[in-house]
Write a structure and sequence with these properties.
With 347 residues, the chain is of the alpha/beta class. 46% of the residues lie in helices and 11% in strands. It has one domain: TIM Barrel (Alpha-Beta Barrel). The two termini are 24 Å apart.
Length: 347
Amino acid sequence: MGYTMENITQRERFISALKKEAVDKIPVCAVTQTGIVDLMELSGAGWPEANYDPEKMATLAIAANELAGLEAVRVPFCTSVLAESLGCSFDKGSFDTQPYQLDFPCKTKDDVKNISVPDDIIEKPRIKTVLEAARIVRERVGDKTPIIAGLIGSAATAFYLSGATNYLMWCITDEEKFKSLLQIGTEACLKYASALYGHGVDAIVIIDSEAGPDILPPSLFESMVLPEYHSITSQLNGLKILHICGDTSDILDHMASSGFNGLSIEEKVDIRYAKQIIGQRSAIIGNISPSATLLDKSPDIIKKEAKQCIEDGVDIIAPGCGLAPHTSLDQLKSLVYARDEYYQENG
């Protein structure tokens, strides 16, 4: 790649780790949301405005890199962007709560046929905000820091469009309608992700927790969701990560075969077991608990758990899911300190 281990940048380290290539030390970042109140106060860019204003979104996202030391900049801070662009309605939330869904368009099965991906979806206000924020971030951080952008996946899109009850019912009683919603999600993901790459993003992360075993039976994941993932990964040329919340142990093999460069997993999944299943097919990202550890534990305990993750074999150390807004800056910094201490202690 034209660099040595002595002069490797954060961006080069992240890309190499995601490609399962050699690095001087594993990256520390967050592929899920990074907005915490401490950073909002220090940067002067807070929620809910930072979810809707590109300048504030960029400023708050960069703060996680410049002030907390995380080795990537991640936008946006919520999962509502694509769903709102497809017709769902949301409350904007508050300074410490993310936007939350108010209504969805597919009340009945007949409504599904009226849903499609708009030709101008990239021009929708929420998507334009994230694209502009990504451009601003790249302009401000230059070429030495990686940019990660999150968006919901095929299953999460179907969930938002149909509501929880319909989603859980239709996946069993009407697979045709369910599949149609998944395909809408796939098409929207492809258009949005392609635009993100074009605005300076190095890697996209598909947030698709509604595909996980906590909600969807593994057999349906294999038969209905996995083909959509193959469609997404085969058509996207940039780096791509898949994040599914909960205990994904039962679908790890399928996740690893889906074509994503990295798999982001929660603390409910044992890293050593994940490595056995995944092998060299994908980089493993995680898996410090954002609630049980990063929010509630002391820096010393956080560092101990983070070092154990490194010992167990993660390729990129990161929170296992989105940060709780009231996570302190000192707690977040502990992840970077832990990585640095680990390499000092182990040569």
